[in-house]
Design brief:
Radius of gyration: 21 Å
Number of strands: 2
Structural class: mainly alpha
Distance between the termini: 53 Å
Number of helices: 8
Order of helices and strands: HHHHHEEHHH
Helix content: over 70%
Oligomer: single chain
Strand content: under 5%
């Protein structure tokens, strides 16, 4: 908290003094980075990755349901604001996971589709498995959405073999 307050003070104090401002922000950013533990940084990266996976999964589901997808559709489905979705779409586009046509239609790239299908496969399996254990459908859906992002590929394959049987 102290580092965040100091960063704000540096911003206010240095406003209009470009070189001093840049140096103070650089110093305060370094201080803030050092204060964050490696585990906190790892959790922050995981949250960003999870968010991107949720967006890709939602695009896949909406495309299957509607045939075409726009940012407003994603915002409505995920109950997010349009500006939040626009920022996320910009990041997904920069990473090469989606394309956006001139008329605003969003499509998954091959890499984006690969990620989305993998997450969706996990979601469906975990939802089915939790439901078969007697977990109410709504809770199973919610829990599956969390589990699908944190489990390793190796563990997922083992659970899939267990749930689906040897094929």
């Amino acid at each position: 908290m102290y580092a965040k307050r100091r960063l704000g003070e540096a911003f206010l104090f240095s406003w209009g003094k470009e070189p001093a401002f840049s140096q103070r922000v650089y110093e305060m950013t370094g201080t803030l980075q050092r204060l964050l533990s490696a585990e906190e940084r790892k959790r922050a990266v995981k949250r960003i990755q999870e968010s991107a996976e949720n967006y890709l999964e939602t695009i896949l589901i909406l495309h299957e349901r509607k045939g075409s997808v726009r940012s407003i559709d994603i915002a409505a489905e995920m109950e997010f604001s349009k500006p939040s979705v626009s920022v996320a779409m910009k990041h997904l586009r920069e990473k090469g996971h989606i394309t956006v046509s001139a008329d605003g239609l969003i499509s998954l790239t091959a890499e984006g589709r690969r990620i989305a299908e993998g997450v969706y496969e996990r979601h469906l399996l975990f939802t089915r498995w939790l439901s078969s254990l007697g977990v109410p459908q709504a809770v199973a859906e919610e829990d599956a959405c969390r589990i699908e992002h944190v489990i390793s590929e190796e563990t997922f394959r083992a659970i899939r073999r267990h749930v689906d049987g040897p094929n």
